[in-house]
Amino acid sequence: MAAMRSFLFIPADSEKKLAKGDAIPADVLILDLEDAVAPENKARARQLAYEYLRDRPDNRPQQIWIRINTLDNPAAGSDLAAVLPARPDGVVLPKARSADDVILLGNRIGTYEAEHEIEANSTRILPVATETAASLFTIGDYRRAGPRLAGLTWGAEDLSAAVAATTNKEESGRWTAPFELARSLCLFGAHAAGVQAVDTLFSDFRDDGGLRASCEEARRDGFSGKLAIHPSQVEIINQAFTPSEEEVEQARRIVALFEANPGVGVLSLDGRMVDLPHLTQAQKILAAAEE
Ligand code: COA
Ligand code: MG
After folding, report:
1. Does ligand 1 lie within 6 Å of residue 11's CB atom?
2. Which among 55, 41, 105, 113 has a CA at the least distance from the CA of 84?
3. CB of 84 closer than 6 angstroms to any ligand 1 atom
């Protein structure tokens, strides 16, 4: 599968923003039917999302996903019925409570795949896995969500509202401790499930430097992509989550060193110890670079 570094939200009721989507180099466009769309515009947003998917050229480089409403809201059923026949590549599930929600959604998607001759299990799911307080206690268990699971991402705004936090950021701009915990749980939950960890959005879309720093921290920690809300964020995200030439070169050297020394668990390179975790890390960098 092609790399998924940048995931740009587009409110699906905005014809103007949808039209811009074609030229934006996001790996994934997420046509939003949930929070960015007012209740009175939901029906129109579904129709526009359907048409956008239906009319996309076959050779389009971006994946196109939709974000549906929460599963406890009948609007989610309307979202799926209206848009799935047009074959989105995936579905973002907001306020996911556990792997059970992904399984439930997957079963619902499966009926549309069967009805519309879409390959079984080809529609992927990305849950937003930290938006309720209870969800933080089930986040280690997503491995059983099955083959549709594309990654885990997290969100701070709905979680703040859920616990009546008055803010989620320190004055310095860093997450406060409770939200830092949610971020870390998303990271480890994703890797425990064997899927990619996708960092939450950086809301101050005029602050390119702040976004760059946030991407670098995320990549350093083990996230491999990030949500975006504005077109200007996409290239910064793509660049930050693409391994640099130097990283790739260094990874090649580590892999070559282990290949030249079969059966050896620990070696030295440029005066530093390298052992199996370094080899694993180097292999991951080369895999990411290949994508
Ligand atoms: N997708 C596509 N086009 C977008 C876009 C997006 N997410 N965000 C902005 N644009 C377009 C604007 O329409 C504008 O087009 P124009 O130059 O033809 O007028 C251009 O990019 C520049 O936008 P700008 O004026 O800088 O921003 P704005 O004030 O119009 O919009 C937001 C700011 C936050 C409302 C807008 O970026 C947005 O809707 N983001 C997505 C929000 C969302 O989906 N949230 C749900 C997930 S949290
Ligand atoms: Mg939300």
Report:
1. yes
2. 113
3. no
Could you give the 3-state DSSP secondary structure of residue 14?
Answer: coil
E strand map for the chain: 6-11, 28-32, 63-67, 90-93, 124-127, 151-153, 196-199, 225-228, 267-269, 272-274
Q: For ligand 1, atom 33, name the residue with the nearest CA.
A: 230
Ligand 1 center from residue 204 Cα (angstroms): 12
What is the C-alpha separation between 94 and 268, in angstroms, rounded?
Answer: 46
pLDDT, one tens digit per residue, over 89-138 is 999 999 999 999 999 999 999 999 999 999 999 999 999 999 999 999 99
Sorted by where each starts, the structural domains of the chain and their CATH numbers stand as 6-240 (3.20.20.60), 245-290 (no CATH)
Q: How far is the CA of 229 from the centre of ligand 1 (A)?
A: 7
pTM of the model: 0.94
Nearest CA to ligand 1 atom 32: 230
Indicate which residue's Cα is closest to atom 14 of ligand 1.
Answer: 17
* Residue 211 to residue 229: CA distance in whole angstroms: 12
**Contact predicate 125/149, CB 8 Å:** yes
What spacing in Å lies between the alpha carbon of 69 and ligand 2's midpoint?
Answer: 10
Q: For residues 134 and 121, is the Cβ–Cβ distance under 8 A?
A: no
3-state helix, strand, coil in the chain (%, to 5): 50, 15, 35
Handedness of CA 14, 18, 23, 25 (dihedral sign): positive
